[in-house]
Amino acid sequence: MRALKRYDRRGFTLVELMIVVAIIGVLAALAIFGVRRYLASAKTSEAKNSVGAITRGAAAAFERETAASEILTAGANSGTASHSLCDTADAVPDGGPPMGVKYQPDTTEGEDFETGTATGGWKCLRFSMTQPIYYQYHYVRGARVPGVTTGPTPGTGVNGFEAGAVGNLDADGVNSYFTRGGTVDTATGQLALATQINIENEYE
């Protein structure tokens, strides 16, 4: 009877405790990694959504018919309406991507996203952001967003554009890029957009 009672009161061995501690450590490491990846994904969704909105703005601007303002004499015809892409917009913010911090866009007329005309810049795209942002945003007509090396090449000259976001969430000097472009088919006059956003170094 005494032997049975002593057996019932036996505790955990050192090996068992070490195994439990090791398992807890592995689970904690996985949890930390998962939380960090989740937070990074939440930040990159800003860039993906915004690049998509800029692209849609460029497509909508192209679909709008534009015509020169004219004063016609009796019996004269106006010039024909045309479709054209918006001209290049200034990068926001202009000093490069925020380095692991947020930038508050200036909503004053003539600053940041409040620049451009009816035919060029952010006003032509009808795109604006008023909340703090993690990325620098671009819209470039006829060329690539600076620093981008992969993805479909947009049309050159007046026949293409690229919208993009450049970021550096961990401030390590390596940028992430989110871009989407489009090209006007000169034969049909139709605008073709890239099927999806091209991403380089997503979580940098």
TrEMBL record:
Pfam families reported in the protein's UniProt record: N_methyl
The alphabetical list of record keywords is: Membrane, Transmembrane, Transmembrane helix
Q: Which InterPro entries match?
A: N_methyl_site (IPR012902), Pilin-like (IPR045584)
- Segments spanning the bilayer are 12-35
Keyword Transmembrane assigned: yes
**This protein's name:** Fimbiral protein pilA
State the organism named in the record.
Sorangium cellulosum (Polyangium cellulosum)
